[in-house]
Design goal:
seven-stranded antiparallel sheet; three-stranded antiparallel sheet; Protein Transport Mog1p, Chain A; 28% helix; alpha+beta; 6 helices; 32% strand
Length: 212
């Protein structure tokens, strides 16, 4: 189960201490509208409320809570949504349940305070404990790592391929406190042949976010 994968990656990386698209930042509305419609795109939107720093956001109506168990450990959380009847496509909301180190938090805070930019190798190395292996070439084919704004909030976006599952991945890292130590994640994953089909759904959902 993906919750177990999150926990395994999280435990390994916290103890040890570029992605396929930047479209959540770079694509303009016209490009979104030209994207192929997913089977979920013509359904009435559903509202998702009160997940971490997210007060509210909308997903197409054919998306719903995954059949997999929500929740992650004693204090963490993992909630997953997917388009009905479509395997290997999901949008997850993850909080690891504990703060990252003050050193890693300072690095994350510093990266977000700078102007929107592509991250350097040094910056990625400094963030390694919170990236769950995404900066490790043997685990993840990292194609892009950059900062940008989503509805007025500066975030970090990584895109690439999870080598264990083969799924194309876009992960948004959100600072949930003022020190960079509480990190929330939004992660879209899909098989290669489905990634672009459902990407416009995810783009629109992310752009609908109302932050707390």
């Amino acid at each position: 189960m993906r919750e177990q994968e999150f926990q395994k990656e999280n435990n390994n990386l916290l103890s040890s201490s570029n992605l396929a698209n930047e479209s959540l930042f770079a694509h303009v509305r016209e490009e979104i509208m030209k994207a192929p419609l997913s089977p979920a795109s013509n359904r009435t939107a559903i509202s998702i409320k009160d997940i971490g720093q997210i007060a509210e956001m909308s997903l197409p109506g054919a998306w719903g809570p995954s059949q997999e168990k929500n929740g992650f450990g004693a204090t963490g959380s993992y909630k997953e949504f997917a388009p009905g009847g479509v395997p290997d496509v999901h949008l997850g909301f993850f909080y690891r349940g504990r703060q990252i180190s003050s050193e890693s938090g300072d690095s994350f805070n510093r990266v977000l305070k700078g102007s929107p930019h592509q991250l350097s190798k040094d910056e990625l190395d400094a963030l390694s404990p919170m990236l769950r292996g995404m900066n490790q070439a043997e685990l993840f084919d990292l194609k892009s790592a950059s900062t940008g704004d989503i509805n007025g909030k500066r975030v970090l976006l990584l895109s690439g391929t999870n080598l264990a599952s083969g799924l194309e991945t876009q992960t948004i890292f959100i600072e949930a406190d003022r020190e960079g130590r509480v990190v929330q994640e939004i992660e879209y994953q899909a098989a290669q042949d489905k990634f672009q089909i459902f990407q416009s759904d995810v783009q629109k959902a992310v752009r609908s976010i109302v932050w707390k």
